[in-house]
Amino acid sequence: MLDFAAIDFETANRYSSSICSVGVVIVRGGEVCKKIYRLVHPVPNYYSPGNIAVHGLTKEDTDSADYFPEVWAEIAQYIEDLPLVAHFSRFDESCLKAAFKRYEMTYPDYKFYCTCVASRKVFGNRLFNHKLPTVAKYCGYDLENHHHALADAEAAAACVIGIQKFSGLKLEDI
Hints:
The chain is of the alpha/beta class. Helix content is 41%, strand content 19%. It has helices at residues 49-55, 59-62, 68-79, 89-102, 115-123, 132-138, 149-167, and strands spanning 4-11, 19-28, 31-39, 84-86, 112-114. Strands 3-2-1-4-5 form a five-stranded mixed sheet, with helices on both faces. A hairpin with a 7-residue loop joins strand 1 and strand 2 (19-28). Helix 5 (115-123) runs parallel beside helix 7 and helix 6 (132-138) crosses helix 7 (149-167). The chain is globular. It starts with a strand and ends in a 7-residue tail after the last helix. The mean pLDDT is 96.
């Protein structure tokens, strides 16, 4: 059985704690059963031009959004004790840990898996690169809205499912 939560964060600036959007896709038994997308009021609350160029979000988009603790309270009830997966998971894990630290929340020690590392391991040089759009396409998902947190989480979920089908490996082995 393949149960996990694919997650993606976008940030407003260079600070990992400046989460401005989050996408989560809950997969149980290898099937998507829940999708969550939320804008987040970032801390610190300013947007760097480079970050805006990547994801298109601005201060006006998130001024009335909930802060991270409120958003995470909603998400956490669906994640429960599921492992988390992300493409370049070090970034997403660092954002999550930074936000927990910023708000003095107790971090539940989530287990993260990386679809980029798994892709390199399973597909090797069959792919010309291991960027999220490339791996997702190879796994049957056309990522049209790259750097939208939900689209990227959907792509990461498709990558895990595809990598598992191609390799026969369990999540903890990829």
